[in-house]
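Subgroup meeting minutes
Present: P.N., E.W., G.H.
Scribe: E.W.

1. P.N. recapped why we're keeping a running log of single-chain structure predictions: easier to compare across weeks, and new members can see raw inputs and outputs side by side.
2. G.H. added today's entry (177 aa).
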Amino acid sequence: MKLFHTSDVIIEHPDIRHGRLNADFGQGFYLSPDYEFSRRWAKRDAYINEYELDTEGLRVVRLERNEDWFTYIFHNRRAKDTLDADVIIGPIANDTIYDTLGMISSGFLDSKEALELLLIGPEYTQVAIKSDAANAKLRWLGAKQVQVDEAIFEARRQEELEYQQLFAACMQRFAED
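Output recorded in log:
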């Protein structure tokens, strides 16, 4: 499996314990199988590190954008990782990308409302390397320095705006109910 990680530095040897405990899939090293997604979320000057992951012999959990996924994310945001996995593959919670201030998993909304909000917007996949065994099977292939042009930033801003509009409309509907 080819994977990409965007950073302002080259990362030949990822540290799976560097990331936040309360990230979508708990602590780990996060990558994407989508090069264009990685490029779109880069800062102006960045490196896109490319890796290859051999999943043979690893405990791989695949999540879909549904209630089980939401429950797992909800627990992780409280630093309570509930899965025993070497690698987790699943959708990114758009609220972390679009910075809705943690409202979805804050307890302000009930679970049904929070899940409905998490289903808004495009679906991107992330891969979290969770264990030393998985990290040992992640091979760095190289890094490419990229410069992101204004068209890419504009596309990202437009996607963020569309997401925020959908989010606001959904929140308005919740308030009226």
